[in-house]
Structure formats: C-alpha cells, structure tokens
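Board notes (copied after class):
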Amino acid sequence: MLKNRLWANPFVVFLVAAGLVSGVIAVWYFLGDHPVTTVILVRHAEKNIEPDNPNPALSPAGQERALALVHTLGSSGIAAIYATQYIRTQSTATPLANHQGLTVNQIDSRDVAELVRRIKTNNAGSVVFAAGHNNSVPAIIAALGGETFPVIPENEYDNMFIVTVQRFRTTRVLRLKYGNPSAPAVNQQALNQ
C-alpha cells in the first residue's frame, strides 16, 4: 500500500524520471562518440641566415621543404591552417594553403593559448595544420594536452608532430620526419681539435 502511494506522488515520479534522464545523458556524454581533432605541427622551414634581420625569408632549402609539405599533406583533409606573423612561418604554410584552397590564419607567436583556444573552438573534429617555431611547437603540444618535448634544436627543420586530441581520452603525439633530413649540428668542440 505504501509502495502504491509512493508512485502516486508526482514529486517521486519526477525525481525518478529526472534521475534516469540524467543517467542517460551522463553515459552519452562520457562514452559517446566525440570528435577527434588532429593537429599537425611543424617548425618553420629553413630560413636565410641574416643576423641583423629578425624576420628573414626562407632559404632555397626552406622553400623546398615547404613544397614537401604539399606532397606529404596535400590529401590529408586539412580544414584550417595557422602560422605566426613571421615571413618564415607564413612562407612555410602558404604552398600547402594554396594547394588546399585555404587561407593562412595568422596567430601571434607568443600567444599559444589563443591558438589552442581557436583550434578547440573553431576546428574541433577537424584536421588542422600549424607552422610555429622551435620553442612554440613544443609549447603548443603541451597546451593541447600532449607530452612535454624540449625546444627543437636550431638546426632541425624536419620534425612533424601529429597531435590527436579527443575529449576524455589521452592526447597522443606522433613524431615524424618529412622532407630532406636536416643538416647535422656542427660539433664546435671537434672543430677546435
């Protein structure tokens, strides 16, 4: 009799229904299919060595590397391209953007948080390409939830990082090489001997 009275109370029925709906929504939210965002990061290609110029253009080797990106990523379904305000990053990304029919979105090289916010807000579930710098690429990976990488050595231009971001799952980072191998670092100590 008490059991029948309990179910006759509209408040109890409402609480049970609300609990069931909340449970279904929670299961869907945590276990449902969430979009995967893939971010492909590279350091700008080789630049001209101009000690008095803070904004040098790409060297011929850098121009060749930028074209290698078209060959490597030309059919990867990239939906957005970002590069910092410097000529070397813009020139690294432009051939790929032209091939994809996209515009290079300019970002401030010091504002990693803004780039990550834009990717997560505007490009969730897409493939994104970004050209950065030897110090900003590792910072972007970390801000996306990936592992910590050291600053890329000055003489390395052939690294490509593919960062896979999916809500409630571990961010994965795949490190690859592309284009011609970067020139090895000159061992100053060996030269002095």
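Comment from the instructor: The chain has a mean pLDDT of 87. The CA atoms of residues 84 and 107 lie 5 Å apart.
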